[in-house]
Design a protein that fits this description.
The complex is a heterodimer. Chain A is mainly alpha-helical. Chain A is built from four helices and two strands, in the order αβαβαα. The chains are: A mainly alpha, B mainly alpha. Chain B: It is found in: Nucleus.
Amino acid sequence: MAARPSGGENRLVSLPLSRIRVIMKSSPEVSSINQDALFLTARATELFVQYLASYSYKHGRGKEKRALTYSDLSHTAEECETFQFLADILPKKILASKYLKMLEKEKRDGEVKEEEKEEEEDESEEDAES
Amino acid sequence: MAERPEDLNLPNAVITRIIKEALPDGVNISKEARSAISRAASVFVLYATSCANNFAMKGKRKTLNAGDVLSAMEEMEFQRFVAPLKESLEGNRREQKGKKEARKDKDKKADSEEQDKSREEENDDDDERMEEEEQNEEEEVDN
């Protein structure tokens, strides 16, 4: 068997172990990681990528056009409990135009409430006076 | 050590390949989707590490081991990964052992005086696996 650089490519896992280790070590409470744990984390990440992709494709609308879209992923994060830890980094997206309409509606609703409040105050003042 | 943002990302080419392997042929993956999956993968590593670390701490150990990672998978509701992970681990251990023996044979040929020393080392697999650690890693031997 040809010698391979340590920590480098391993045909049982494609993700680079060195990079996985950097991410793991960025966690402050972690002191050391044994070689098996590093390998398993890398391999688990590959399984995770496959699972997230295939699940999202299967349950998403992108497949109507034979595509995996961001929306499929974000939908998965919202709907599937197992993937809910991703909800913050895969937020739902809305069109800018829709968002502006939402803001306008909120503003209008706010103005209507203000008007109603003023009317009530006027009425109670009238009651008080009479 | 300060990490630059790109150090916490996984290589695009590898991520793309893994995604393609999971989907039917000819399915298009938008750049946005690929980037999102890559970020999700990094978050997964962090989450898994944190979870595994909890198990290590429960066991009063400072070093994360294979069992901790497998327990983390169960905890995170990825039980489906446990069996394939165990298989991969077996395969990896066999391969590491094979590599070691191949290197030893190479050494034997290079220097025949070292022969007795190698034979002693062959009997001690566990310790050798520990030694195989990446150089920067400080390893605690937990027996």
